[in-house]
Specification:
The complex is a heterodimer of chains A (69) and B (266). With 69 residues, chain A is mainly beta. Chain A has one domain: Ubiquitin-like (UB roll). Chain A is 10% helix and 28% strand. A five-stranded mixed sheet of chain A has the order 2-1-5-3-4, with no helix packed on it. In chain A, strand 3 and strand 4 form a beta hairpin. The N and C termini of chain A lie far apart (44 Å). Chain B has an eight-stranded mixed sheet with strand order 3-2-1-4-5-6-7-8, with helices on both faces. Chain B is globular, with a radius of gyration of 18 Å. In chain B, helix 4 runs parallel beside helix 5 and helix 4 packs across helix 10. Chain B has ten helices and eight strands. The chains are: A mainly beta (69), B alpha/beta (266). At the A-B interface, strand 4 of A face strand 5, strand 6, helix 8 and strand 8 of B.
């Protein structure tokens, strides 16, 4: 199935979960990433059970500090 | 009050813009912006806002200038090492534009002082380096109904979003609560390209200016992400979260509070 992951369309295996996608995409700080699917946030405790479907658009939002020192 | 001849000349490149004009410049001169953190983000933002003629600019920072700051914090110069950042920033800003008032607050933001600090300002810039401060600024601005610009930078990446009361999500809608200390790398640990502060801090200044003149679309409901290595800017849509602890329908956070000290201060 085709998914749009951070703006790029790519082919993935059917039945892929958000947790598995985080692993495949080598997301940094996977414990603390915010994930949205089709512009809705996915609760952080539900990544294992959230199954993606054809055409879904996924974004990863990261904590970013920095700036002052 | 009409603009003086000196002001007409100083701000001529603003005034010639149809979106600004003398009327918009007057709004800029009358505006009050608070910059929290005179570092990588706050330095360029403060310089541009001072140059633009923002009439009152507050700067909050408890730190002194360190030699390792100068790679990116362009408001401070080599002779400033050891000086309070707020004073160093004030001097540079007033050298650029002697007509503005720069208020200095040589302290860190905390639950006990933040409401008083933001009270007199129209727009707040978060240029802090740690998550407890970012959440504190968010909560205080939501509670006080103040618009603010959030930003973060690390390595070759940066991000920002703008909160406007009643319009779109807040920082806590997206990130819920700070990560545990040391869970997420800081600039001190991971490094950052100096120009990243210039890119993202300038975008924060741009958001402040647009808010002041009331033109264009702000980054409300979007997180702008910038990847310098890929030279990729993206606007990621953010939903508003009705269950948000501070801006949601039944908020549980009714006054600002402090989290444990940040990783970067260890």
């Amino acid at each position: 199935m085709k998914l749009t992951v951070t703006g790029n369309v790519k082919e993935y295996a059917d039945g892929l979960t958000v947790a598995k996608l985080i692993e495949l995409e080598k997301v940094e700080t996977p414990m603390y990433v915010t994930v949205s699917v089709n512009d809705e946030f996915i609760a952080s405790g539900t990544f294992e059970e959230t199954v993606l479907k054809e055409g879904d658009s996924i974004e990863f939002l990261y904590f970013m500090g920095g700036g002052q020192r | 009050m009409l603009l003086s001849n000196e002001q007409m000349e100083r701000y001529s490149r603003h005034i010639i813009l149809s979106e600004v004009g003398a009327k918009g410049q007057k709004k800029i001169i009358d505006a009050k912006v608070l910059i929290i953190g005179a570092g990588g983000l706050g330095a360029p933002a403060a310089l541009y806002l001072a140059a633009a003629g923002v009439g009152t600019i507050g700067i909050v920072d408890a730190d002194n200038v360190d030699l390792s700051n100068l790679q990116r914090q362009i408001i401070h110069t080599t002779p400033d090492v050891g000086k309070a950042k707020v004073l160093s920033a004030q001097e540079t800003m007033n050298a650029v534009n002697p007509h503005i008032t720069v208020n200095t607050y040589h302290e860190f933001v905390e639950a006990s002082n933040i409401m008083d600090l933001i009270a007199g300002y129209d727009f707040i810039l978060d240029g802090t380096d740690n998550f407890p401060a970012k959440f504190l600024i968010n909560d205080a601005c939501v509670l006080a109904k103040k618009p603010f610009s959030h930003a973060g930078i690390i390595r070759f990446k940066g991000q920002l979003m703008t909160y406007v009361p009643g319009k779109g999500p807040c920082y806590r809608c997206v990130f819920r609560e700070p990560p545990p200390p040391e869970a997420v790398p800081t600039c001190r640990q991971a490094g950052v390209i100096g120009a990243m502060g210039g890119v993202i801090g300038s975008l924060q200044a741009m958001e402040a200016i647009k808010y002041i003149i009331g033109k264009g679309d702000l980054l409300t409901g979007f997180l702008l992400t910038y990847d310098a290595l890929k030279m990729d800017f993206r606007k990621v849509k953010l939903p508003k979260v009705s269950s948000c602890a501070v801006c949601g329908d039944n908020p549980s956070i009714l006054k600002p509070f402090d989290y444990e000290q940040a990783a970067c201060k260890l």
